[in-house]
UniProtKB/TrEMBL annotation:
Gene: gltX
Protein name (Swiss-Prot/TrEMBL): Glutamate--tRNA ligase
EC number: 6.1.1.17
Entry GO CC: cytoplasm
Enzymatic class: ligase
Keywords on record: Aminoacyl-tRNA synthetase, ATP-binding, Cytoplasm, Ligase, Nucleotide-binding, Protein biosynthesis
One Pfam assignment: tRNA-synt_1c_C2
Gene Ontology BP term (one): glutamyl-tRNA aminoacylation
Family affiliation: Belongs to the class-I aminoacyl-tRNA synthetase family. Glutamate--tRNA ligase type 2 subfamily.
One function term, GO molecular function aspect: glutamate-tRNA ligase activity
């Protein structure tokens, strides 16, 4: 091997050694280097007996470098290969797959298109969670478009527009643009006129039943061959509100013999007699169907990628007919399955929730029994915890189950460090205490001794939860206080259960040895009445006196009960909302 060849071998070996070390964040391995080295350089093969010795020396030198020095050297030798490794590492960090064909667009632009008929339930949060995450990954744009062009069957709720934007803010995202479809009727009319001029639409006065029979048999509607002037006149009469509901529609001309009947000459506009609840749109009677309105808006607002339910696959197929007439490029489409959420008895349905609220079965959208974002927010669950759990579902076309435990786990990591500890005793049983100190002093937070201790008075007696009460003669450890034994009353051998707890001389070893359980407690006299609202119903109890020092919106941990958000401190009781275990 001459000097020139040796230099080439060393240079190539160094590159592959660095690639191996950086990719796997470890020392390079001679065997791992030899394969790609010889594969990329077939002219090295005649010197196969000498090359391992050269590679061994190069690998040793590379392994002597620091991690940062290895990366810097690789950036000098093979910047493109380093970029590929870093891209792979970045991709591995994502629960969501890469969006398709992002390099074909100057900017990734995605939209959430809610129907504003009420605040969002948990399932609704998946779309903004995913879109907001993609926006951050690609430095793209997030559009919120209120699809409110059905003032009758999916009648908008005037409060829902702001409520949904509040929900998006709670999740941690801010839309770049907010669009209201009912403000854009004239835009849809103009595109309908252009579609008519292109021969892509016709007016039809068939009854729904009649057209359905024709469509299913693959027969053309008799109105399909109307002259263009008549179509234009009848559409303008629709716009002017001269027809009643069901009397006239505008259809997109597709393929009347298409193998999928749902795509045959579908309705683009129909008449609705019910006025829109928004004053700005109340005078309109000719309304676009969602597939037409949404398709036009996606193009005009520059949407590049659409995520929609797997059950809406026909929407893209319908819209492509319109796009073909206008010679538009259709956005990339990702279809996903539905989300099902455990832990709730209430259906994930805005209309169902609204009915229950109106009937008084739920107190409102933020009732802890409601599977809504407003409920989670009032319970002290942070939006980023909801996003993390939803992102973990990916974008599978299969239906997926969201376990509330995944939201709880994510939120626990966010709140645990700041949540001060308190005792809450539910349905407490009262006991006198003898022989112990006047107060207990458990830590404010077990992981932060510097935060100090609480003071819980015990001289006036204590209360324990029924499941924590020891049998006569048995011991328990009152956390932050001492070990106590329940006394017996009476002179009989069996005796009666006493309402007195006597402090013992036991030390903490009895707990470590597993002989004595540790329980929480509260003072019998100097305590705070608490109502805790939970998804399973309201619970009452008493808390230690220091709990009164908390402020509204604090998230605390009631030890052995769970986390809770402070909702209010009243003159007679405090109200908290249970967060999670």
């Amino acid at each position: 091997m001459d000097d020139e060849l040796r230099e080439r071998v060393e240079r190539e070996a160094e590159k592959h050694a660095l690639l191996n070390a950086v990719k796997y964040e470890s020392d390079a391995d001679v065997g791992a280097v030899m394969g790609p080295l010889m594969g990329e350089n077939p002219d090295f093969r005649p010197h196969g007996d000498e090359i391992p010795g050269v590679v061994g020396g190069v690998v040793a030198r590379v392994n002597d470098l620091s991690t940062e020095a290895k990366r810097d050297r690789l950036e000098d030798l093979a910047p493109e290969e380093l970029a590929e490794i870093e891209a792979e590492d970045e991709e591995d960090e994502h629960d969501l797959p890469d969006l398709p064909n992002v390099d074909d667009y100057d900017e990734v632009r995605m939209r959430a298109a809610p129907n504003p008929n009420g605040p969002w339930h948990i399932g609704h949060a998946r779309m903004p969670a995913v879109i907001g995450t993609y926006k951050e990954r690609y430095d793209g744009s997030f559009v919120v478009r209120f699809d409110d062009t059905d003032p009758e069957t999916k009648r908008p709720d005037l409060d829902a527009y702001d409520a949904i934007l509040d929900d998006i803010d709670y999740l941690g995202f801010e839309p770049d643009d907010v669009i209201v479809a009912s403000d854009r009727l004239e835009t849809y009319y103009e595109h309908a006129r252009d579609l008519i001029d292109a021969g892509g639409a016709y007016t039809c006065s068939c009854s729904g039943e009649t057209f359905s029979e024709l469509k299913n048999s693959g027969e053309a509607c008799p109105h399909r061959e109307k002259d263009p002037e008549t179509i234009r006149e009848e559409f303008e009469a629709m716009v002017d509100g001269e027809y009643d509901s069901g009397e006239m529609v505008l259809r997109v001309r597709t393929d009347i013999e298409h193998k999928n009947p749902a795509l045959r000459d579908w309705v683009a506009f129909r008449m609705i007699d019910t006025p829109h609840p928004r004053e700005e749109a109340a005078e309109y009677r000719c309304w676009p169907m969602l597939d037409f309105q949404s398709g036009v808006d996606d193009h005009l607002t520059g949407v590049t990628h659409i995520i929609r339910g797997i059950d809406l696959q026909d929407s893209a197929k319908r819209q492509r007919f319109v796009y073909d007439y206008f010679d538009w490029e259709y956005p990339e489409v990702i279809h996903w399955g539905h989300v099902q959420v455990d832990a709730y008895d209430v259906k994930l349905s805005t209309s169902t929730l609204k009915e229950k609220i109106e009937a008084g079965d739920l107190d409102g959208w933020d009732d802890p029994r409601a599977p809504t974002l407003k409920s989670l927010r009032r319970r002290g669950i942070r939006g980023e915890a909801v996003v993390e759990a939803l992102i973990g579902l990916g974008t599978s076309t299969s239906n997926v189950d969201l376990s509330m435990s995944s939201i709880y786990a994510a939120n626990r990591e966010l709140v645990d460090d700041d949540a001060e500890r308190y005792f809450l005793v539910r349905d407490g049983e009262r006991f006198d205490v003898e022989g112990g100190p006047d107060a207990g002093h458990p830590p404010i937070h077990p992981d932060h001794e510097d935060r100090g201790e609480r003071t819980i008075p015990a001289a006036g007696g204590v209360v324990l939860e029924p499941g924590d009460v020891p049998a006569a003669g048995e011991r328990v450890w009152l956390k932050g206080y001492a070990c106590v034994r329940r006394e017996r009353d009476g002179a009989s051998a069996i005796g009666a259960d006493s309402e007195t707890l006597v402090a013992t001389d036991d030390d903490i070893d009895v707990v470590r040895d597993g002989d004595v359980d540790v329980v929480h407690w509260a003072p019998a006299e100097d305590n705070i009445d608490v109502q805790m609202r939970t998804p399973d119903g309201d619970v009452t109890g008493v808390a230690e006196p220091d709990f009164a020092e908390t402020t509204v919106d604090d998230v605390v941990q009631f030890e052995r009960v769970g986390f809770a958000r402070v909702d209010e401190h009243g003159s007679e009781e405090s109200v908290v909302y249970w967060t999670h275990p």
